[in-house]
Amino acid sequence: MISKWNYLPLTTEEQKSGTELAEKYADCQPISELLVQRGITTQEEAEKFFHPSLKDMHSPFLMPDMDKAVNRLNKAMGSKERILIFGDYDVDGTTSVALVYKYLQNYYSNIDYYIPTRYDEGYGVSMRAIEEAAQQGVKLIIILDCGIKAIDEIKYAKSLGIDFIICDHHVPDEELPPAVAILNPKLENSTYPCQHLSGCGVGYKFMQAFSQSNGLGSAELENMLDLVAVSIAADIVPMVDENRIMTYWGLKRLNSNPNVGLRAIIKICQLSNRDITISDVIFKIGPRINASGRMQSGREAVELLVARDFSDAYQKAKAIDQYNRDRKELDKRITDEANAILESQDEKIQQRKSIVIYNKDWHKGIIGIVASRLTELYYKPSVVLTLSNGLATGSSRSVQGFDIYSAVESSRDILENFGGHTYAVGLSMKEENIPEFTRRFEKYVAEHILPTQLTPQLDIDAYLTFAEITPEFLSLLRKFNPFGPGNPKPVFCTRGVIDYGTSKLVGKHLEHIKLELVDNTSGKVFNGISFNMSRYFEHIHSRKPFDICYTIEEGKRTNHPHIQLQVKEIRITDV
């Protein structure tokens, strides 16, 4: 699907506000423009942005209920109560559990962890898990990356003498569970400055508060920021404020002395001895951790992340890598099946603004990925459902700018359960309610989605000539890392480039183009890659000019920095 190219130059007001930066970066004008786009207008703000400092982290006690949470944890440890760390089976949940369990284990031994099985128990805390905890004498459960809607379950736990501390970041309902403390920056009464923490980020803030209250120092906890960085990248939370600070330092840890389990995954991914980036976490490390909960058991991922012996961790990482291979095969098969169903539908259904698709035999652990694939392919809010434990259970994904949580919530009266974020929601319903849900979901989407939200938008941050891609420019551009929502990787546009004469088709089916390009501003030749754009090769090979939108990627080849333009789209200019 061809995107609409958008470029919004700085307004006169923005230009005035960025005068100081424009003067500072006079030789790299695009840099000052990129900073102003991010709301950074002074040299002092730029220095803070370019050099994230842990000193700029917020006090954890700004979060409502933090005092209550720390006091209850201190009481439990002082009374030698049995504590259970409970979390979701995805990357955010398993890293959360690993971080809190590993940190507290340094000071307390009467502690264990629990990850529910996706297939037998489903998302969140179950009555079965609470009963097992009661049988084991658990008096305090710290629940991470879930729990904010577990009202009945936590009431039941309370009746059995079990207290809960909730560390969650999902959108809460009006009624809250009767927990001793609820740590969630999205609570209505929360004024915590960083609203969009990951679940692991909330767990980190809890441990930070515990550490401060007990005078334990910060170094030991900061050494676990690699786990937080993985959670932030995998859960795609905004890369701003504390999230950017924690990811910046977490990536440093990943590249120097990572968690033993993460080091094993890094080796499996063949990322050793190279700079690990956010992209590596999103596309290589995260999916492997996730595959454990999707294909087998999320507990195995925690066992890997809390491992102390590398050889043991490496064996666990190999097993998880195999789960990921199996996941890829299932992912492709189910996506192909879903596409075949959608393509066979009549034209009226195809013209709908949303997708709801159901197959009772699809693998529950894969449907979230399939929903993402369908949203990417058709650029519509998508819900994919399968049958699990007698209910139609599924995942939804949204397009840029559309709140799918509100769309799902509008049908809450016919849902058994739901929860999530603006762009991704999990849900379940009785099988007979699928047609009504489909009708209501489409009606809500059709009434609320904007026409522009149904077409991919490619936002251009700045126009560049190849002459402007200097060593100084690249050095400053590196400082914009780490990238993510709220701080996206800059997209540049260069007009009128031509083939240097050596571009060629590559890939198994010659579907990609390996580019070598020049423009008319310098003699520089830049390498590039454009995936699945072989349709443009004839034009490119004819040495006619064209425009490119791209990101600048850096790697190392034979120990030397290597620049490659990752071409996102090509526009032919002479037709």
Describe the structure.
- The chain has 575 residues and is an alpha/beta fold.
- It is 42% helix and 19% strand.
- The strands form 4 sheets. The protein has a 5-stranded parallel beta sheet, sandwiched between helices. Strands 7-8-9-11-10 form a 5-stranded mixed beta sheet, sandwiched between helices. A 5-stranded mixed barrel has the order 14-16-17-19-18.
Oligomer type: single chain
Structural class: alpha/beta
Number of helical segments with 4 or more residues: 22
Number of DSSP strand runs? 19
Secondary structure: helix percent? 40-55%
Q: How confident is the prediction overall: mean pLDDT?
A: 92
Low-confidence stretches: none
- Biggest β-sheet: count, sense, barrel? 5 strands, parallel
Beta-strand percentage range: 15-25%
Ends apart, CA distance between termini: 19 Å
Strand order of the largest sheet: 3-2-4-5-6
Please state the overall shape, judged from the principal axes of the Cα atoms. Answer: globular
Computed over alpha carbons, the radius of gyration is 25 Å
Task: Sum this structure up briefly.
The protein is built from 22 helices and 19 strands. The chain is of the alpha/beta class and 575 residues long.
